[in-house]
Amino acid sequence: MLVTAVMVAGFVAFTLAESANTDEAAAPDVGRELPPGYRDWRLISVAHEAGNLNDLRAILGNDVAIKAYREGKLPFPDGAIIARLAWSYVPSEENNKVFGRPQSFVAGDPTNVQFMVKNSKKYASTGGWGFAQFDNGKPAQNVVQNACFACHEPAKARDFVFTRYAP
Amino acid sequence: MLVTAVMVAGFVAFTLAESANTDEAAAPDVGRELPPGYRDWRLISVAHEAGNLNDLRAILGNDVAIKAYREGKLPFPDGAIIARLAWSYVPSEENNKVFGRPQSFVAGDPTNVQFMVKNSKKYASTGGWGFAQFDNGKPAQNVVQNACFACHEPAKARDFVFTRYAP
Fold first, then answer.
1. What is the per-residue pLDDT for A146?
2. How many Cβ contacts (< 8 angstroms) between chains A and B?
3. Phi and psi of B88, rounded to 5°?
4. What is the tens place of the pLDDT at every residue in A44-72?
5. Cα separation of A98 and B73, whole Å?
6. A54: Cβ–Cβ under 8 A, 6 or more apart, which residues?
């Protein structure tokens, strides 16, 4: 089944893909539109992935997610959304000059943005989480809900979320 | 002159040090208290400093700073505050297992938090910026306004701010 993503100008609304037919199993429930205002969400933590990813990343949370993190509440309640933004990992010659040696790496171009959306009923088969990825603001075609979940399974004790809150 | 920092419970107010005597030159105008709610500010960018610092960092901005960044407005208007949070750079064995190789670095314990506060009159001699650092929530004793500014001078063309906004 081909799911056509309707991108509303300005990313007005965030809805997870609702299958219009009965072929639910074949239609991965990934996000069709970026959650409005996600770039304004509060910071959970930061990270660096080397290797092929070679990025710097920020993990942000909507109000529901941040509240749960700060209260140490597990599992995350329905409505929690966690966003992972990433940018290419770029040495900063400008900063290195100031520090007097090559040590500084900054965020370059954005790579992609990923989301985990909690809806315990809708995504019951994947720990209550829906997974989505956006490349240049558009839903990635190659991300499969079950594949995302498979990698997150080892973090089951923390409701399938790897990132810890950075105080 | 000994400046005694009065830490109000919960960091109620953020005031820059107002010298109570005439010895202004000897009393660096650094922050006495953490700006309330700075951990909730919006993200400007992320970075990694290797070397002795060996940290992962997030740069956040208050509303005035974020607005100026997004509008590309220079110099930053009075009232802008930029926060640099940093955490130790820690390999994540947990994440590495999932990725199948050692590539993942996450935020460990916090190191310190630094602020740049724009007040073009008060800090006229340092590009309009006041500089502050807090270790474990308390004002650092070893940070000198002029020393901070000296390192920031090469970024004069961007109003002495190195960090660029990460889209």
1. 86
2. 115
3. -60, 150
4. 999 999 999 999 999 999 999 999 999 99
5. 24
6. A88, A89
To test the contact with chain B by mutation, choose from A46, A70, A84 the residue with the greatest count of B C-beta atoms within 10 A, namely A46
Helix (H, G, I), strand (E, B) or coil at A163: coil
- Chain A residue numbers with beta carbons less than 8 Å from the beta carbon of B158 are none
B64 lies within 8 A of chain A by CB: no
Alpha-carbon gap, residue B146 to B99, rounded angstroms = 45
Q: Does position A34 have pLDDT exceeding 50, yes or no?
A: yes
Q: Does the interface ipTM go beyond 0.90? A: no
Q: Which of B40, B50, B107 sits opposite A46 (nearest CB)?
A: B107
Look up tokens 């994947």; give the residue: A126
C-alpha–C-alpha distance, residues A133 and A113, integer Å: 6
Model pLDDT for residues A79-138, shown as the tens digit of each residue: 999 999 999 999 999 999 999 999 999 999 999 999 999 999 999 999 999 999 999 888
On the question of a cis peptide bond just before residue A35, with omega within 30 degrees of 0, the verdict is: no
Tell me the pairing of strands A129-135 and A104-118: antiparallel
CA-based nearest residue to A86, from A126, A64, A115, A62:
A115
